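Memo to structure team: turn this sequence into structure tokens by end of day. - J.P.
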Amino acid sequence: MSCPAPAPWLVLFRLAPWTGPEDMGATWGCPGWVRLALCLAGLVLSLYALHVKAARARDRDYRALCDVGTAISCSRVFSSRWGQGFGLVEHMLGPDSVFNQSNSIFGCIFYTLQLLLGCLRGRWASILLVLSSLVSLAGSVYLAWILFFVLYDFCIVCITTYVINVGLMVLNIQEVQGCQGKVKGH
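Reply from structure team:
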């Protein structure tokens, strides 16, 4: 794995050394099998959650595979007010806001960005990966709190996406630290 070059603005303002033309842009590479597996699993789970929410909206008696019992029901969680816009967007921006989407849509966007940015080899891509992972972890903690202490539910799909988000955060931090170690040793 090659380390990302310094950000272009750091090179321009002489805050980082110029190491060649690769400093001015990112290069494409393989995201790695761990990132690929985590992002695809997150994407599949987000699409499944979207399917469950839509099926439940069409048929109130719909029973999803992840509905194990009354206290373990993902369709109940996805259909709750917190399943759309994190339960916050409607109150802050209104029900017709473009941001008042199913949380699953945000999940699909997040996992797609993680996969695409994971293919880029550049400092800015590494920073965006870590920052977006931090936002996903904050959202995961918030939604886990809602899940356990407000809805009193256990959602297998939700918990799995939280674990995936933690995995992506660990992966992103390891990649940044690994590259910083190589730069210091160089």
